[in-house]
Amino acid sequence: MSHHPVRHSLSLTFAALVAIALSSCQLPSTSGSGSSTVRRAESAGGGRLFAGAGSLNVPVHSSGINDVARMFAGLNGSSASPRHKQEMDALWRMHEYGRGRAVRRWASSEIGDLQRHRAMFYPFSGPDYLFAHELFPSAETYILCGLEPAEPLPDLSTLSQGEIAYGLDNLRTGLRSIMDAGYFVTQDMRRDLQTTRFRGVLPVLLAFLARTGASVDSVDIVRIDGSGNAVLTGASGGSAPGLMIRFRSGFGGMKRLFYFRQDLSNGSTYPGGTFLTFVAKQGSPPALVKSASYLLHGDSFSTIRNFLTRQTSGLVQDASGVPYRHLVNAGLSLSLYGNYQGTLGIFSQQQPDLKAAYHSGRHPVESVNFGFGYLHSADTTCIIVARRK
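^ that's the sequence the OP posted. Answer follows.
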């Protein structure tokens, strides 16, 4: 197996990519919440999420981080090896023809009202910006969260060709399940994201952003303060509490992607707590729940479950999200898609009431030509769209 000699060209990119410039930045306003800003913490340091920056503190040229994103994505004009580009192209075709195009058509037809919101919330997402974008392409603010860490990128000029190639190999391995089946396998993803020098969620997020046509401007470390506001903060080594990635869509509009390492169980996420306050401040955004390990079916996740049914403008989910009975009890208007026949055998959270609802005539039911979440066969999939009446 041969590897393309990429080290020299990548070192030139990272010579410029030495720091992230931190400044108070005006962000898109959100429905019902007016103007929103991300503040610099008084004690903030450099806020760099890239190792090897030394003591320099100069602005990063936007093309620097964008070049890195394109390299991870294996796009033309980047420093990616021919092998990485070829295999990333194949993975992208797998997604596009297997699910991506169909998901976008369905979303445009069925949830256009929810797509008009300026923000969207995706709990239990991990680094799955892909489906956040496919379902909510017009959002200006994306809020993702999971247990996977956000770690610094290394200075690629210090890596050998073998380390770079191994990191890109594992990145492709980590992406394969979501490109094929439409969801990450949690245990495999965590292993793949931690065993190379390209650790954590950032390489995956950057690859998805580039592949979906975004131009990445900056990456900042953020935390949520006691008032539920995002605050730019200094890098302290290891995993960051959160990321804010600023990027431009294909039409040039500035957007932002937040990723927070957040435990959503009741022991860590509280009613009125800082994290949910931050989400609510984005204008009661619609939420997406997919392949969430049926955690919302347990009492230990009642806080986030109640937030989704009471404080979002709508909910797009598969059967692993909020149980059907809770959606009904919350008085939400429901539309059903697919043909739910029960969940996978590895899970015990069957919903006979949901299965019956598909045949009762109580809610509108429409077929779909793609799988969604764990039920990735179109014949047995389940999509529930819940809206406030």
